[in-house]
Every structure is written in structure tokens, then in C-alpha cells.
């Protein structure tokens, strides 16, 4: 009996703590379940193109373009919009990058461990939203100024990594919901990037998903469950360097309705799709 009481008390405390943490983020759970103010129509079955390096190929037929916020000139975004494309801005919201034009704006006390494999990149302490918020808001504002339609927020999985900070799931949830709120305030759609363990808590507040290596790592189904089944598209990238079995990936794509694209790690113009397997 005592064990049962303790278990119920523990579950109650976890629930209360989660509610308190999330409510501290300016009513983060009041984030619109979808971006109702947007005129965009992003649907399951839409196709997707991503390129961050080299001259952007403006002649692709895909509906959705994913470009780097800082690297893509406004005229490129404008050209794509005139062609009816939906253009998404890649923004690193979870790590500092020393080559970005706003790198000097990051307070040293929020900089953590180096991001392994990416020189010049360091994790940031997402618990300190008050110090991060001005930087992220300026970046989202720049996305609006350049004409982007949405946000591709990278590194929203600090709690699963060695950041140098004691970041919990609840800390990450609070931050990720805040990001959704800030995007929707600006009439921008926003993607959940990876982190399948959070899909159950984020799919109502995010408009679509962008995944990397989900097929080769075996976790795509989570996003089919929470996003595809709720009529929200999922765009998945598999990298040539990992030698994916393209035919197998494309068979799965047809069954799951997740849109797959194959790219090199430098995300240049080189691209393969599942068109040949339809």
C-alpha cells in the first residue's frame, strides 16, 4: 500500500512540475496548435528541396525550398516566392556558430561544450531563455524581412547531448514551445527537427517535421504516427555518405507518406529523390 501511495505521489509531482515549467514560458501551451494566420498550404505529399552551399538552383520543381537564413540573399527568396515556392529558413537555435554575423551577441555565460564534429560550434544553455530570446527574435525577424515563410530550427535536442549544462526534458520542452510561439507570432510556420522522443509533445504545436538519418537509424515511424497521421508533412534527408539503400528508402517512403530526399553532407546542389521508384 505504501509503495502504491508513493508511486501515485511521484506521478502527481512529475505532472505538477511539468505544468509549472511549461507555464513559466509565458503560457507556452497557448501556442496555436497550427499557424491559423498563415495562408500557406503545406500538406502531406508535398515535395522538398534543401541547399545551403553553392549557387542556389532556382529551377527545381519542388514546392518547398529550405535555405540558410544568413547565406540566402533576399533576391533568391523573392525569386522563389514569385514561382510559388514555400521557402524555409534554416536557423541554429540550439548552438552558437562563430562564423555567423551575430556571433558577438551571444553572452559567454551561455556557451557550453563544443559541438562534436563541427568546429566553431558550441552548445548554448537553453534554460536561459531571457538571454537567448533577443538573438532568436532578431533572427526570426530577419527571416520575415527576407520573405521566408517558415523556420527550420536546428539542435532542439540539447537534453540528449553533452552540452556542459544540466538540461532536462522539461527545459527542452519549455524552449521548444517558446520557439513555436515566436514563429507563429510572426506568421511563420515551424518544423520539428529530429528528436523523436519529443514528437508526442510537439506535434500539436509544430506545423511539419524535418528529419535527418531517420531511416538508417530506424525512427521514422514515430513521425509517421504523430505528424503524417495528423495531416502534417514530414521531410526526411538521408545522406549519400551513409550509403543508404535508396530503393528500400523509397519503398518505405511510399508506404509511410514521408517525403525523402538524398543529399551530401555539405548540402550543395547534388540531389536524388524517389521519383524513379514511383
UniProtKB/TrEMBL annotation:
Coiled-coil region(s): none
InterPro entries xrefs: Aldolase_TIM (IPR013785), GH (IPR017853), GH114_TIM-barrel (IPR004352), TM1410-rel (IPR016062)
Domain of life, source organism: Bacteria
Location of the Glycoside-hydrolase family GH114 TIM-barrel domain: 49-268
Name of protein: Endo alpha-1,4 polygalactosaminidase
Species for this entry: candidate division WOR-3 bacterium
Phylogenetic classification of the source organism: Bacteria, Bacteria division WOR-3
